[in-house]
Protein 1
Amino acid sequence: MPPDLQPTFRALADPTRRDILRMLGDRDMTIAEVSDHFDMTRAAVKKHLVVLGDGGLITVRAEGREKINSLNAHALRPVADWLGWFESFWDTRLDALKSAIEKETSNDTGHNNND
Amino acid sequence: MPPDLQPTFRALADPTRRDILRMLGDRDMTIAEVSDHFDMTRAAVKKHLVVLGDGGLITVRAEGREKINSLNAHALRPVADWLGWFESFWDTRLDALKSAIEKETSNDTGHNNND
DNA sequence: AATAAGTGAAACCAAATGGTATCTCTTTAT
DNA sequence: ATAAAGAGATACCATTTGGTTTCACTTATT
C-alpha cells in the first residue's frame, strides 16, 4: 500500500516549513536554533516541526535537554513519484514529440492513406 | 526572478485538487464534468479550480456557455526543481555512498566498532 | 418566447491553520 | 541548592479553508 501523501503535501504547503527543510538540509538543528532564523515564537516553530514530523519529513532525537531535528528527505520520494506521473506533460522534448504527433494526426484526417 | 512557488504548493496540498489534476491529465473537462466525479457541490469544485488556477496548474477556455479546464503541467516544473534540491538526500545510490563515507570516518576516529 | 443548462458570485458556516502567551517539566550551569 | 536554558502543553485568538445554499447571468434548446 502506498504511503499517505496527504500529510507530506500538507507539510510542504507552508513557506516557513519549506525553509526549515532547506535549513535542515545544511545541518541538524535544535528547535531554538531553527527559531532563531524566524520572526516568530519558539512555540510557533515547534508547531511547524510537528507538522513536518507528521509528514515524515524530519526526525527528532533527544540529546540531553535538547531535541535535534534532522531532515528525512526520503519522505520526499513519494512526492517526487507523484509529480513524475505528470512528467510526460511538461518535458520539453516530449512536448516537441507530441506536437509532431499531433501534426501527423491532423494530416491523417485530411489524407486517409490507411487502406 | 523565480516564480512564486507558494500558490502552486498550496494548490497541491488538497487531495481533491490533486485528483482533479490527474483527471485533467486524461482529458479536458468542464466544471460540471469534474463535479460529477466528486461528492460535493459544483460550487465547491469551482473553488478548487480557482485555487488550481492561482497555482497556474490549469488553464480555462470558454466554449459557448461551457468552460473547458485543461491541465497546465508546466507549473509543476518549479515544484519538481524545488524537490530536486533534496535529491542528493534520498537518492539510494548516494545513500550507499554516504554510508561508506560515514563508516570510513568512524574508522578514522580510531574507535573499534567491532566490540 | 420560454425554458433549461452551465456557470459565476455572494453570504454564510464549521473546522483547520498559524500565531500568541503562559505555565510546567527536565536538564544543565553557577 | 538555586537559577537558567531548552522544550512540551494548553488555552486562546484571528484568519483561512472547504464546504453549503441561494440568486443572477449568459448561452442553448424547444
Protein 2
Amino acid sequence: MMRGHLDGLVLAVLTAGPAHGYGLIEALRERSDGFFDLPEGSVYPALHRLERAGLVASGWSEAGGRRRRVYSLTTTGRRAAQERQSEWRSFSAAVERVFGAPSRPASQTGAVTS
Amino acid sequence: MMRGHLDGLVLAVLTAGPAHGYGLIEALRERSDGFFDLPEGSVYPALHRLERAGLVASGWSEAGGRRRRVYSLTTTGRRAAQERQSEWRSFSAAVERVFGAPSRPASQTGAVTS
DNA sequence: AGCCTAAGCCTAGACTGTCTAGGTATGAGT
DNA sequence: ACTCATACCTAGACAGTCTAGGCTTAGGCT
C-alpha cells in the first residue's frame, strides 16, 4: 500500500530522466530493492493524475515494435518533486518523533490511575 | 493527511500507557512538535476501528465531571504496535532509497534518446 | 500452428482511510 | 448569558490504491 506517497515517488524517479509507465514500475522496484512492486492499476492512474495536474507531460514513442507513452517532468513538476520530497522528510521526521518519544506520566493522557 | 499510518501512531502512543481520544490527539500533537494536529473525525473512527480489530480495549472513566473513554492496548495490540513500527521503518527506508537513488542511464527507463 | 510469457497500454468499480461538518454535553471563566 | 475548552460521536463526501479484467505485439517453445 502506497498511502498517498506514490506521486512523490513517481516524481522522484522522473527527476532522473523521462520514463514510461512500465519502466517506471521497474525503476521503483529496483530503487527500493524490491519493496515497491506496484500494480499497473496504481501507477497508470497516478501518471494520468499527474499529467492532468500539469506536473508531467507525455508523448508516444516506439521501441522494438511496442508503443510507449513516455512521461517527463514539467517545470512545475520539477518544483513539485522537490516539495514532495521535503514534505516527506518532515512527515517522516514527525512519525519518528512519535515512535521515539519517551513515556509520559499517565496523568497527562487520561489514564485510569486508580 | 495521515495516509494510512494513523493506526501505527495511535498504537505507539498507547504503548506508553492508556489514553482517551482527546488526550491522544494532544499527545500526537506534542510528540510531533505540532506536526500532527488531527481532527477528531480522524482519531475517533480510528480508535473504534482498532477496538473492533481487538488491538485496543476501552472503558469509561470520569475526570472533572467529564466522561472519558479510555483506551489501552491489548496483548495483540502490543504486538501489532511493534509490527507497525517495523513496517514503518522498512517502508520509510524504501522511500528514502527511491528518493536518494542515483540517476540511471535514460535507456533503462524508455526515455526518448533521439 | 498453437501456446505461453514478457512487454506495454488501459479502465471500471470496489475498497478503505481520512476529513468535513455537523451534532451533543459539561465545567469554568467573563 | 455567553464563550471557550474539554470530551464524545457519526454520516457522508472525498481521494487514492488495488483488483480484475481488457487489449496488443514480439519472441520463444513444442
